[in-house]
Design brief:
The protein is an alpha/beta fold and 394 residues long. The chain is 51% helix and 12% strand. The protein has 2 domains: 170 residues, 3-Layer(aba) Sandwich (Rossmann fold); 202 residues, Dehydroquinate synthase-like - alpha domain (Dehydroquinate synthase-like, alpha domain, Up-down Bundle). It contains 14 helices and 10 strands. It is globular.
Amino acid sequence: MKGSRFYYEFYNPAKVEAGIGCLEQAAEKLPLLGLHNAFFVCDRLENNDSADNVRKAVNAAKVRTGAIYVCEDKIVRLESLRDMRDVYRANNCDSIVACGSYGVINAAKTLRMMLAGQVARFEDAKGIDAVRKKVNVPLVAVPTDVGTSNVASDDVTLKDDEGAVFECVSPLCIPDFCIIDPKVVSVRDADAPIAGALESFAKNIEEFVSRQAVTLTKCMNLIAIREVRDNFVKSADDPTDEHAVFGLQKAGLLAGICYVGASAGIAHAISGALASVTGRERYICTGIIFAECMRYNLEVAEKDYAQAYYYIVGDDKYAATPAGERAEALIAAAETMIKEKFGANRLATRLSDIGADEELLDKIVEETMKSYALVTNPRNVTKEDVYAILRSVM
């Protein structure tokens, strides 16, 4: 912009309908988006009330279910994507409805990108904006995890035929319609609220201090952090509390929306690498390294941490904490939250707990350094820095 010293752009076209019990009302709008014969993706069929309810709502809106695909990949494999593409085409589907956890949403977003861009080789989608839209393939996402943060983001993670993980970033990964309803959330175990809250909190903190952060994203990040504060304990104590679950869903949604403009940082990169190498859940990996990653960024993110501290502790505690100690207090609060909740549920808090020893460090570091998230981290990251963080939590 001529004559302007600073400007920014923000783009996220996803339509969102959110509320307790909003599923049926939201589904009525699906034909307006061009859905007629939908490809339905879920993480299981047996005893899956969430998938059943979503499919019934879709069918009630006069949208046929052309095919159903069960995706069990945590990180979708190219083999699975080829299979999904073949089933989609064989049944003349014209749209995708994804109902499930992180892995299901991730797979559906990837499939839409490939179909809409008419990509012949999935490997050609690697990188940023490598795929351009050629045909319309509407995508509807209905997350069933607490705080699923990838639902409205523009990134996906894939595994190639050799098992190597790579990322793709494209506007085609953003769903056309996101339906956020706690009534379809599947709380499979007591860890679910912890997973959702931690992933939302970590993503929003990292986006808040990202090199790409701007006024719009920062505002949403702070509101999301407050939602975690208000609902984490309630949801952990009672996973059936729909209002608390909805609060964590909103925090995850905001993290995904902001990720399009302000990508996460070093914790996102390391946790992704850890999850890929060890096969453990990403939130477990985040729990192990997040506080140390916050501490690593402290020297450049102190002002932002101090501001975010208010939204995680509220008026009284913020006022009682000296201004110069608020940034450190935020890290301490995050550390306490993780240790108390992870410890109470016997979840891993050290690398040794998940079988990640010194022999795996080289591979973890190598995978970490491939992540785009390091580019947007507020502090420049070297291999030696990643080694130091990992060794501090051995």
